[in-house]
Amino acid sequence: MNVKKIVILLVILAGLIFGIYLANKKQEKTEEAKILVNLKSDEIVKIKLTEGKRKIVVEKKDKSWKIVSPIKTNADEVIVERIVSDFSELKPEKTVDKNPSNLKKYGLENPERAITLYSKTGEKYTILFGDKGPLGDEYYAKLKSSPKVVLLSSMKRDDVMKTVSDLRDKHLVKVETGDVKGFSINNTKENKILEFKRADERWFFLKPKKCLANESKTDDLLFSIQNLEAKDIVKDSPSEKDLSEYNLKDPEIKIIINLKDSKKELFVSKKGEDYFAYSKDSNFIGKINSTFVDDISKDFKELREKKVAVFSGYKINKIEFTGYGKSYLMEKDGNGTWRLKKPEKFILQDEKVSDFISAIEDMEAKEIIDEPGDLRQYGLDKPSIKVKLYPEDGKPIVLLFGKEKDNDIFVKNQEFSYIFKVGTDSLDKFPKKSIIDWKFKERKKEED
Residue 20: pLDDT band by 50, 70, 90 thresholds? Predict the structure, then answer.
């Protein structure tokens, strides 16, 4: 191929590339021309919903949405963000009339409903809604600043129809789980108090007794409090008289959530057949579901941790076992293989060690003795077995095993003052007289 042909081909190729570029640019301009609202969702900082004389204004303040008119209160973040998403970079379903001579036939001559979007840079878009379109699931609409009539989905029109009740946040208290240092539930009617404290990434009871609380059940309790929403809001900015009317001045249930430098209070009481709640955080009295009262009325015994030790078995990498007159040290090597280090050295059967760890991890009390007194009566002054587990993170767990009685054995976790009574079947996976039995035996290859 000569140079002249190569040059001709290159010119043709350049022409094709330029043609594709122009076509793409034209397509981009066509698509851009279809956009009714040219704002990204994170650029929108204020919206105004209008329906006749009713106007609702919602603004973003300190990264949170607030209703600022006709009342001042927190907005429901999920609902407002969905509206913002629906109208950002808005494209119509269809353009009906680019330059209509009569807006009345579309219900857009004096429209009752509109939404105005405000950007952080001062841009403003007002979208007017008119009558229902021919298909029934769309509405005629137009930008206030443009003559063009388009069709928008009924979902967009439903957004504009939202009321203050629809838009407001009905949560009684707003707290992030990570900020909670503790909380208490004081049931004055039943004279019961539960007080929890978060420490070392665990939940502890402070009242009625100092002990470990069940992690998942306590988390569920806090979740119920955080997610309490009013079915109906009966009074905004209530007075002392209003609180008295709904028995919230001296509430049946008082919940205190302790944060790092502050606290939040939630009051709950019954009036007639209904339950009502109030918090200064939300500053309204709301009617709530009775199921919330059931959720937070758990008994201390139900919420208390009954496991002898709470840990993740896979995180244990070293074990000290003392029993049958001997002490053993087991460690997991870099390949995840368990090895006996003392008094001898050999490879252990992994499944034996894993079953042993799982048995302790699953060990649960039949009974908890809170004030045991003299440990001798439980055989814990000179325990028959002592186990020390070393997790890869955190403090070692030390367990003492005492007397056996009626198919039960007394166990003490040295972290706590109380004693556990567990079934002796919990020890089925423990070594039988010697850890030598756990020695790994390599199978001999069978001869052909």
Answer: low
Mean pLDDT for the stretch of residues 419-424: 97
CB-CB contact of 117 with 87 (8 Å): yes
Token output for 421? 């009574």
Whether residues 299 and 317 share a domain: the answer is: no
Specify whether 150 is located in the same domain as 184.
no
Task: List the Cα angle 94/97/99 in 5-degree steps.
Answer: 140
Q: What is the pLDDT of residues 329-342, one digit of tens each?
A: 999 999 999 999 99
DSSP structure class, residue 315: G
Q: How crowded is residue 417: how many other Cβ atoms within 10 Å of its Cβ? A: 14
Of 411, 202, 394, 381, give the one whose Cα is nearest residue 308. 411
Whole-number Å distance between alpha carbons of 446 and 448: 6
Report how far residue 103's alpha carbon sits from residue 308's, in angstroms, rounded to the nearest whole number: 76
- Residue given tokens 């000179």 in the structure block: 382
**Do 219 and 121 reside in the same domain of the chain?**
no
Q: Residue 160 is which amino acid?
A: V
Q: What's the N-to-C CA distance of the chain in angstroms?
A: 70
Give the count of domains, the chain: 3
Q: For the chain, what's the residue count?
A: 448
Q: Count CB neighbours of 360 within 10 A.
A: 23
In degrees rounded to 5, what are phi and psi of residue 216? -70, -40
**Amino acid residing at 133:** G
